[in-house]
Amino acid sequence: MIDYEPFLSRAGESMQGSAIRKMGVVAAGIPDIISFAPGYPDPAVFAWAEFREIALALLGGNDPNALQYGPTRGYPPLVEALSSILGARGIRATRDEVLVTTGSQQGLDLIARILCDPGDVVLVELPTYTGAIAAFKDVQADLVGVRQASDGIDLGDLEAVVARERAAGKRVNCIYVVPNFQNPAGLLIGLEKRRGLLEVASRHNLLIIEDDPYGELYFCDDEAHLTRPVKADDVEGRVVYLSSFSKILAPGFRVAWIAAPAALAAKLDDAKQAADLCTGSLDQRMVFEAWKRGVLAARVPGLRAHYRHKKDTMERAMKASLGNLLTWREPRGGFFLWASLPEHLSGEALLAQATAERVVYVAGAAFFVDGSGQNTIRLSFSAPTPDRIVEGIGRLARVIQRAAAGPSPA
Ligand SMILES: Cc1ncc(COP(=O)(O)O)c(C=O)c1O
To answer: Is there an atom of ligand 1 within 6 Å of 183 CB?
Structure first.
């Protein structure tokens, strides 16, 4: 048997699988399991009929390029459409500022590659998205956490952390945030604070990496304006903005995009050439046609109602059986309910018992780069049906009630 360890690069050696994906594997092997682990959209609300019709037309053979390589930047009509989609979100981006990516996950990977050398500090919220942690770790960046307040990132702490890291001789170039219905904490960064973040970034010469897959999925129409991207008010060109069709159309297409200042977009284009040459030509056309035919615009309001109903269902069930044991803030959009267990309980330690009860979630510690958050859990309400949500919360309640009643660890 060959020992492959000595063959690995240092980066390769340190790579680790995501806690969310691991839970997916655990869940897949257990019959009748209810999974609150992955942030999967509900396939019941995919536009199956429209996709069928579009696919049939695209595979009719009239456009030979539908199955050909395409430009790295993206299918030109889709790039044009993205300018318009961004415009509706308050962001002005020309064609040379937009790049189609193979999921936002690839966008994060490309950004990490062009911005970070080993040992550079990347600032992230406590907690933050595990996929971003992985992308930055894979280029051997040092992830340093910034505290969160109820209205998102704590700007005072951000300034203190930048000063501390720079005083220690670290290169601190960028901060990663998910301002809309954050994965995992479900928080919105307040509007005032978004402007404050731009101001702090300007004063300390930081780039802001703004990841926005959930902004369209607000639960209350009156709150649409609260999701205005940080990038919309970026006059200096400090924000690299990512968004995706994964949560609003379907993640299987793997079509997402970055809007960045032209010079950075060009670098990202170079990095993407090495990664995959181009995002799938057929996938991009599927998404473009869905946009052009109005499928996206017609469906998004229904998605908001659909996911709000699931969120309400989960919260109602939790209030009934776990109201005295868990604390959480009501999500105002997105896919996640973030809850704290009693201080002495660990989300990680309870997973084995939860799995035995046939329910899984993601232990919150995976989202903290400083080892904290042991008593937190992330529950995703997006994929299970309302009935399964109620059943799953019932199972979870049994686990948590039992653990809370038991002796606390010394
Ligand atoms: C905050 C955040 N960023 C990026 C992604 C990756 O999305 P995509 O499917 O576009 O790669 C996700 C997926 O869950 C996410 O929650």
So the answer is: yes
Cα distances (angstroms) measured from residue 257 to each of 110, 156, 234? 11, 31, 18
Taking alpha carbons only, the member of 292, 249, 279, 248 closest to residue 57 is 292
- At 24 the pLDDT is 74
Residue of 338, 337, 280, 343 lying closest to 126 (CA atoms): 338
- Among candidates 56, 110, 49, which has minimal Cα distance to 271? 110
Does ligand 1 lie within 6 Å of residue 105's CB atom? Answer: yes
Place of tokens 């232990």: 363
- How far apart CA 337 and CA 112 sit, in angstroms, is 28
Which of 121, 129, 103 has the alpha carbon at shortest distance from 172?
121
Tens-place pLDDT, residues 138-160? 999 999 999 999 999 999 999 99
Q: How far is the CA of 151 from the centre of ligand 1 (A)?
A: 21
Q: What is the rounded distance in angstroms from the CA atom of residue 300 to the CA atom of residue 218?
A: 10
Tokens of 90: 């308050």
Sign of CA dihedral 119, 125, 127, 133: negative
Q: Which of 34, 30, 28 is nearest to 390 (CA)?
A: 34
- pTM for the model stands at 0.96
φ, ψ dihedrals at 268, nearest 5°: -65, -35
